[in-house]
Design a protein that fits this description.
This protein is α/β, with parallel strands linked by helices. About 30% of the residues lie in helices and about 25% in strands. The two termini are about 35 Å apart.
Length: about 375
Amino acid sequence: MGEKRIRLGIIGANVGYGWTPRAHAPALAELPGIELAAVCTAHEETARESAEKFDVPLAFSDHQKMLKEADLDVVAVVVRVPKHYELTMDVIRADKHVYTEWPLGANLVEAQEMAVLARERNLSTMVGLQSRAAPVFLALKDLIDDGYVGEVLSADLRQFSSGVLERTSGRTWQKDVELGATTLTIPFGHSIDAMCMCLGEFESVSATVRTQVSQWHESDTDRMVEVTAPDTISVNGVLTSGAVASAQVVNVPYHGSGYRFEIYGKEGTLLVSSGGSPSTEFAQLYGARGASSEMEEIVISDRYTFVPDTVPDGAPFNIAQLWNRFATGIENTEDVEPNFDTAVQRHRLLEAIQKSSDTGRAQKL
């Protein structure tokens, strides 16, 4: 990026919870090309608290007022999924470039409407599919494209995370499948997007989407709540390249084993592994070529890192990589991914997966 500072406002900047204090604020604090100029929360008191905490000059409790009064180039929508559509559409109508967290909408229709309006207004967009900016996946994609494994024959992705049985009342709203924040849309959505970035899109899918744990214990109220959101997703399919791919993402009660993504080709093998989710945590890359070699760790080049080394590891790092990319795109008037069109493509895949599970039939994309 050049010396020009892009002025950013965040809707959903409460210091007490959410993705802004965990990822966006610490990432943006280390990016000289972006100025966090305004914050908006639901209440005046929390807005002032956030402005003080993040050292921001403008605080709002009404997003429409922020859109009208603050001199902003771009606005980030960092709130619960059910509010993404309304707030993002308001940002677009205010003719601001927009970053919205993933999933873009509660469903495909919402995502399509946001993408269409942003395109009509000639605005730059970005969706928070941060694995697309993770060095491990940038390096993996280049290795595959450069022929490290030769022709890709098959791939397998497995991710098991723990904690499905209990949540606080601030998070049990996710129990409702219609609200769009589920294991299918969030952990599976992030992981399958990284697979598609590296290997290409699915041509067809067969899937099972199930809710294996139908009640959660709400820990702060000591009550059980009924759950319709799925916690178990298993997909088999064929990619447009002809490779066969499978993916299983599950939220289990205890002792999740983490993440493992394997790619097998005619000339070699590649593996990404993580103790958690590589979209927010450290991941390692391994590879081997030919029949006689053994799997060894592949050191990821610094050329895949585009942010200062002062950016904290963990959740802020890939978010900082995304913001750097988005700011460069805005400055150069260039489309960059993952944008809203990327999000629509991913929502379309998730819809096909759900339909396959509902009908028991493979779905073409």
